[in-house]
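Propose amino acids for all 145 sites.
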């Protein structure tokens, strides 16, 4: 029998969070959490670039900066938990948001962080998929990854 090794895929990690705000302030925090993940998973247009030591304005906006990366750690009290895999630096590759749960219900109208009136949902579920940037090798696995 002959086998040919080609590669090892990068690992991905999935997390699901269910938010049920009990007050107007908590509803605004949930909106802020969803918005923060959304903004940090996406690229943005570069406004300026340094070319041959000179700063150039990019008026056409055709160059994208890479999205932010995330460092995920599992803690027990104030120390990293050695019983769980360590996670290398990741990027957020997918985010799904489900508003309202099984039956869509909302709270009384209120204003959001931009002072726009709306009705916050009584339940918000988000699913996040993170992918590691590096391929984990045997050496990294020996370090707990």
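Proposal:
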């Amino acid at each position: 029998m002959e086998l040919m090794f080609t590669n090892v895929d990068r690992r991905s990690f999935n997390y699901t969070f269910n938010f049920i705000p009990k007050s107007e302030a908590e509803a605004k925090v949930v909106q802020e959490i969803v918005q923060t993940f959304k903004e940090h998973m996406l690229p943005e247009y570069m406004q300026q670039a340094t070319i041959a030591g000179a700063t150039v304005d990019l008026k056409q906006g055709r160059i994208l900066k890479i999205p932010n990366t995330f460092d995920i750690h599992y803690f027990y009290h104030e120390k990293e938990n050695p019983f769980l895999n360590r996670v290398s630096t990741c990027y957020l590759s997918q985010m799904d948001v489900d508003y309202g749960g099984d039956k869509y219900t909302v709270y009384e109208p209120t204003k959001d962080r931009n002072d726009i009136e709306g009705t916050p949902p009584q339940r918000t579920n988000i699913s996040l998929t993170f992918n590691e940037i590096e391929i984990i090798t045997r050496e990294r696995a020996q370090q707990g990854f």
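Residues 92 and 130 are 4 Å apart (CA to CA). The chain has two helices and eleven strands.
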